[in-house]
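Ticket #4471: structure export looks truncated?
Reporter: QA, pipeline team
Priority: medium

Steps to reproduce: submit the single chain below to the structure queue and open the exported record.
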Amino acid sequence: MGKTMGDEEVEELFKQIDIDGSGWIDYTEFVAAAMDMEQMMSDKKLQRAFDMFDIDSSGVISANEIKEVLGLTGDIGMNDKIKQIIQQVDNNNDGNISFEEFKVMMTQLG
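Actual output as written to the record:
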């Protein structure tokens, strides 16, 4: 059974959606809230995908983690290709892919 919201949580959610404070949620506010929900769900899906690669839960994806997830641990020839992929995405040049970098990459692919 899912978690139910209490009255205070519902009231707070309503206030966040009722941007103009009219006491009613109009069509524009409803659409804006639905778009925010869609973005949040998309972020959760991306986080789950990121977590699959972040084997050690360090918050970043390393070249070794990519190789391990893809089953390429014995393939020495893939080292340079994986490094190239990381370099294309790695905006802060730390040699790893952060969640934000992963999110940008996946958004551009989509």
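Status: closed, not a bug. The export was complete when the record was re-opened. Leaving a note from the reviewer for reference: The mean pLDDT is 82.
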